[in-house]
Design a protein that fits this description.
The protein is an all-alpha fold. It has one domain (2-211). 85% of the residues lie in helices and 0% in strands.
Length: 244
């Protein structure tokens, strides 16, 4: 009876020690889980903060680029309007000069006609006709040889300047549209990247939760299945404690 009692005491003692080891191990695992969850929370907060800062920087950069493009468009518009105004003024001046020249030619023709009428009786008609031809030839040569080529050159230059201004305006508009499209693509790519990262994180959390739910219970009797210790050969009741 004494030996059975000692064996029962040793068995209970080992059982208590196993329970204590299991409790300590569970506490350690719980501490590790809490620390891992805290680290994950801190990392998630840092990631979100970084994404918010990057989004803010992108927004500020896009706003700056849009403002610069607006200023450039305004300058190009003002330049185009100024050139068009200068062209209108030049064309109006040329039209006035043409009208003045035409009026002078008409007045000169009237003077010639008056002189011809006064001298018709004493001068040969052929001389009057020759004089008229010479006068018209002189004015015609000045008009077609000097004035008209100069006017045509000015009109060609004005037309070239207008076409150049329109071309610059088209290129500026195309560049602005390309910049807006590129900014929109970057924003969509960043949004898609953030969505995929968030989805991956949710999937990882769900997988971790599933693994925790599916994992078997912690072993509590790992040492309980061991065979009973061999009975000591001596009569010392505490001889079996050395195996602990």
């Amino acid at each position: 009876m004494s030996e059975d009692k000692e064996s029962s005491v040793l068995f209970n003692l080992r059982k208590l020690m196993n329970l204590e080891e299991d409790r300590v191990r569970e506490e350690e695992e719980e501490t590790l889980r809490l620390e891992a969850a805290e680290r994950e929370r801190i990392a998630e907060e840092a990631r979100k903060k970084q994404e918010e800062e990057e989004a803010l920087l992108r927004t500020q950069e896009e706003t700056r680029l849009a403002e610069e493009q607006r200023v450039r468009d305004e300058e190009e518009r003002a330049l185009r309007e100024r050139k068009e105004a200068e062209l209108r003024v030049r064309l109006e001046q040329e039209a006035r000069e043409k009208a003045d020249e035409h009026q002078r030619m008409l007045e000169h023709e009237k003077e010639i006609a008056a002189i011809s009428a006064q001298q018709r009786k004493g001068v040969h008609p052929g001389l009057l006709a020759a004089a008229a031809v010479l006068v018209f030839a002189a004015f015609g040569g000045a008009y077609f040889g000097i004035y008209k080529p100069a006017v045509e050159q000015q009109e060609a230059e004005a037309l070239a300047a207008k076409m150049e201004a329109e071309r610059a305006a088209r290129e500026a508009e195309e560049a602005r549209q390309a910049a807006e499209l590129e900014a929109q693509k970057r924003a969509e790519a960043e949004a898609e990247k953030a969505r995929l990262a968030e989805k991956a994180q949710r999937d990882a959390q769900a997988a971790a939760a599933a693994r925790r739910a599916a994992s078997p219970g912690k072993p509590t009797g790992g040492r309980r299945g061991r065979s009973r210790p061999r009975k000591a050969d001596t009569d010392d009741p505490l001889a079996g404690l050395d195996s602990l």
